[in-house]
Amino acid sequence: MEIPDQGTDHVTSPSKDCKLQRDKSHSPVPSFVSMKSDESMDIPQSFSTGISSPGHSIRCSEITGRSGEALTSVLKSETSSLRQLHLTVNTLDLSGNNLEDSGVKRLSALLENPECKVKDLRLYDCGVSDEGCAALASALRSNPSPLRDLDLSLNKVGDSGVKCLSAVLENPHCKLEILRLAYCVVSEEGCAALASALRSNPSHLRKLNLSGNKVGDSGVKCLSDLKDDERYRLQTLIF
Prior knowledge:
Helices cover 37% and strands 15% of the residues. The chain is built from nine helices and nine strands. It has helices at 5-11, 45-48, 65-76, 85-88, 100-111, 130-142, 158-169, 188-200, 216-227, and strands spanning 19-23, 32-36, 56-61, 89-93, 120-122, 149-151, 178-180, 207-209, 236-238.
């Protein structure tokens, strides 16, 4: 269900371009929340009441600049009516937003909260470099358990960023099952770091997407050897 424009204007008076959507296709409780804005936004208690139960997904499209900062500020605020949103949300999709490293650093401050329950984090094409990846990895080291699916495809993560993620993957408390790093400027050096991490923690990662990277024969081999070894859970490997 899409909130009519006049309702949207009432809900988000600071920005005429911000629209909120709720999808109630299978449940009386909204399971999917969509936000679209290119200016700063505010979300009232009347709307947040409808998304306070566990098991939701949130998708944000075209959130950049001040809007990204506003979303993060709302989620972190001790007084906001949305203070609990990041504790109950299952999927956070910010794909296609120009968050850059500064935005990912702010997001990481939420993810390191030990009560954060985000299981599926999608940051496809968000302008993230190894610097943002390092901040994300630091947050996940602090709170490694909930995340199951991480998509960083189409970001210039590079080998140094992959090494930061590998330090998270080797933690036995990390239960990440799916890692997408397509077109992330990864070479055989990054593959070697991933393989080393999986040898330390072989029980969880089952899908790894490295398509669009120049990993070379050695990169393919070191990871393929793990996929072919029944001691490792890795089932799907995409180059």
